[in-house]
Amino acid sequence: MDTVLFEIVELANGDVALQRAEDKGEPLLTIHFSEESNFYLQDAKIEVARAMVQAGLEAASEIAEAKKAEDSNEEMEMDSGPVQIH
Questions:
Q1: What would the pLDDT profile of 30-56 be if each residue is shown by its tens digit?
Q2: How far is CA 64 from the centre of its chain?
Q3: 3-state class (DSSP) for residue 7
Q4: Residue 15 in contact with residue 26, Cβ under 8 Å?
Q5: Is the pLDDT of residue 82 over 90?
Q6: Which 8-state DSSP code applies to residue 33?
Q7: DSSP output for 42-59
Q8: Whole-structure pTM value
Q9: Which residues 6+ apart lie within 8 Å of 79 measured at CB?
Q10: Beta carbons of 55 and 39 less than 8 angstroms apart
């Protein structure tokens, strides 16, 4: 199984991006902070972006697990339906 590494970087325009560490192509995610946000965050911008990415990954994982459980329940309901023999 291949391991994929990601990195959070600040782009030249000041946005923060999530990208594959080995791939300098288009970022997977870009976060833009307003001027006012930048003023308040100052040096903490990367840490805030990291927390946002982490929260997003956790939410995506929870959604995927719920969807998997829902699909599994639907399969069980279809498999356990009544069988009539005449």
A1: 999 999 999 999 899 999 999 999 999
A2: 11
A3: strand
A4: no
A5: no
A6: -
A7: GGGHHHHHHHHHHHHHHH
A8: 0.71
A9: none
A10: no
The token pair that represents 80 in the structure block = 């356990």
Closest CA relative to residue 30, chosen from 49, 51, 45: 49
Residue with tokens 């719920």: 66
Which pLDDT score is estimated for 80?
Answer: 60
Q: Is the dihedral of CA 50, 52, 55, 56 positive or negative?
A: negative
- Residues composing the chain: 86
Q: Which among 58, 48, 49, 13 is positioned nearest to 29, based on CA atoms?
A: 49
Residue whose entry in the numeric block shows the structure tokens 């999530």: 18
Token pair of 47, please? 């840490």
Side-chain-facing half-sphere of 50: CA atoms under 13 Å:
9
Give the type of residue at 76. Answer: M
Integer Rg of the chain from CA: 21
From residue 51, give the alpha-carbon distance in Å to each of 23, 33, 44: 22, 14, 11
